[in-house]
Amino acid sequence: MILTAPLAALGRWVLAALASVGRITLFALEALSHILRPPFYPREFLNALMNVGWFSLPVVGLTAIFTGGALALQIYAGGQRFSAEAVVPQIVAIGMVRELGPVLVGLMVAARVTSSIAAEIATMKVTEQIDALVTLSTHPMKYLTAPRVLAGLITVPVLVAVGDIIGIWGGFLVGTGQLGFAPGTYIKNTWDFLEAADIVSSLVKGAAFGGIATVMGCYHGMQSGRGAQGVGRATKTSVAAAAVLILAANFLLTNLFFTQ
To answer: In Å, how far are 119, 144, 166 from 162, measured between CA atoms?
Structure first.
């Protein structure tokens, strides 16, 4: 018994994790099905667009510009060891578009939007507003989840595109203002090095990360316990789960797009 107890505990943990993955997958599929079927709630969708997209622009922009500038400095410092300082524009471009842009935007959205959605829906559950929706013959998945998930699928790729551009611009400012690159040469090297596959992969990652962030917020909000403690736990768990899933999805998508 003493020897098998750790194995039994590990087995219970694995089964619980697999059950959670199954519940989340079914929840996501149900949310996607409600997106495609009427009735629709345009006001909720527009509010979600503003919350997920427009209000996330400042944090995305600041994160991207500082990341692009720091990336240019790091690549220049590393390239000096091999007399390869000239590759700064190319590596900043591919680093921001392929990896750093989508991942950082996804994590910022998870931190700002996922927590907000989870706290809002969990509070509605605690105050029995979700029960009131059911009483009024309004499906909670249709009214609360579908507009937010659709907004995430649409707006996060746009945020990723904006973040990529601002990040490359941050590298441009540092490269031309501090590292001595000619502006025309920097822009030409950036433009010539990027390929359509890089941009497509960035936007696809943005859509996937937006779906993950909003689904996690809605799911944990719907599953929250009663009371203030339940709201806090749902908010914390939703952000942690969204961040881990975004990083895992980034690995899978990178493997899909760039492994020959």
So the answer is: 27, 27, 6
Pairwise CA distance, residues 89 & 160, whole Å: 19
Paired tokens of 42: 């345009």
Q: At which residue do the structure tokens 């596959």 appear?
A: 197
State the number of CA atoms in the 13 A half-sphere of 99 facing the CB.
Answer: 13
Kindly give the confidence (pLDDT) of every residue in the chain, 260 residues in length, as a single tens digit, with 9 standing for 90 and above.
666 777 777 788 888 878 888 888 888 888 888 888 888 888 999 999 999 988 999 999 999 999 999 999 888 888 777 776 778 888 889 989 999 999 999 999 999 999 999 999 998 888 888 888 888 888 888 888 999 999 999 999 999 999 999 999 999 999 888 888 888 888 888 888 888 888 999 999 999 999 999 999 999 988 887 777 888 888 999 999 999 999 999 999 999 888 76
Find the length of the chain.
260
> Crossing angle of helices 196-222/227-258, nearest 10°?
160
Given the structure tokens 């945020």, which residue do they identify?
Answer: 159
Alpha helix locations (H) across 80-145? 88-94, 101-109, 115-126, 129-135, 140
Give the whole-angstrom CA distance, residue 2 versus residue 189.
63
Question: Measured at the alpha carbon of residue 244, what is the angle toward residues 242 and 250, in degrees to the nearest 5?
Answer: 100
Q: Which amino acid belongs to residue 232?
A: G
Q: What are the domain boundaries of the chain?
A: 39-258
| Pairwise CA distance, residues 129 & 221, whole Å | 13
